Amino acid sequence: MTQNMMKAVLLHGYGDVTRFSYEDAPMPVPASGEVLAKTIAVSINPVDWKIRRGDLKEMMPINFPAVLGRDLSGEVLALGEGVTDLKIGEQVFGLVDHSYAEYVVCKAGDIARIPDALDPIDAAALPLVLLTGAQVIEVGIHPRPGETILITGAMGGVGRTAVHVANMAFMSLQEFVPVKCKRLKPWVRIASLHWMTRKKLQACLNSMPLPIWWVMKPST
């Protein structure tokens, strides 16, 4: 039986963007628990070009040719066996594998419906940074009452997400001050430091309740 084909961006070796090629590739078929989505948009994060360039080849080796890409927004075209919480035609987004393609297969649990108020193109820029910022707080730190979290550079996507998740998880946290450092109320206290001089940073640290249990410096 002839396999259906699609267009995809294939990487043929480590290097710059000239190693990419837009060409035909086999169209994936969803297995049990998987979803086939038609791509609406993808995004590029720092980890993507680091993988492409070979910076992470010791940790994340690639078999060439390869389709890269993690962030995705798309429309559900087919459901694998056992997938019941999504419907064909729904718009979804998530952190998947091989998103630089016309069609993408992913696990149903790795995607979610796009909220009505969110443009699907904008949605493609969210999964990696949102999951990273949320997991730092919920899984990595999991702060307890009375602890202090210092988030530096929190104006980026990961940092802003971390602040938002902490604010949602610990309801007594009432405010977020993006540049100035301010002492916040009990439970979790978060100060975002952005483009601060060393003198201002020291003054901020001196004003914060000690000890500072967690320090987070987002890279995105």
Structure description:
The chain is an alpha+beta fold and 220 residues long. The protein has two domains: 5-124, Alpha-Beta Complex (Quinone Oxidoreductase, Chain A, domain 1); 129-216. The protein is 23% helix and 27% strand. It has five helices and eleven strands. The strands form three sheets. The protein has a five-stranded antiparallel beta sheet. Strands 2-1-4 form a three-stranded antiparallel beta sheet, with no helix packed on it. It has a three-stranded parallel beta sheet with strand order 10-9-11, with helices on one face. Strand 1 and strand 2 (20-26) form a beta hairpin. Helix 3 crosses helix 4 (157-169). The N and C termini lie far apart (45 Å). Mean pLDDT is 80; it is low at 171-197.
List the helices and strands and how they pair.
Blueprint: E1 5-11, E2 20-26, E3 34-42, H1 46-53, E4 66-67, E5 71-79, E6 91-95, E7 103-107, E8 111-113, H2 120-123, H3 127-141, E9 148-152, H4 157-169, E10 189-193, H5 198-207, E11 214-216
Parallel strand pairs: 9-10, 9-11
Antiparallel strand pairs: 1-2, 1-4, 3-5, 3-7, 5-6, 6-8
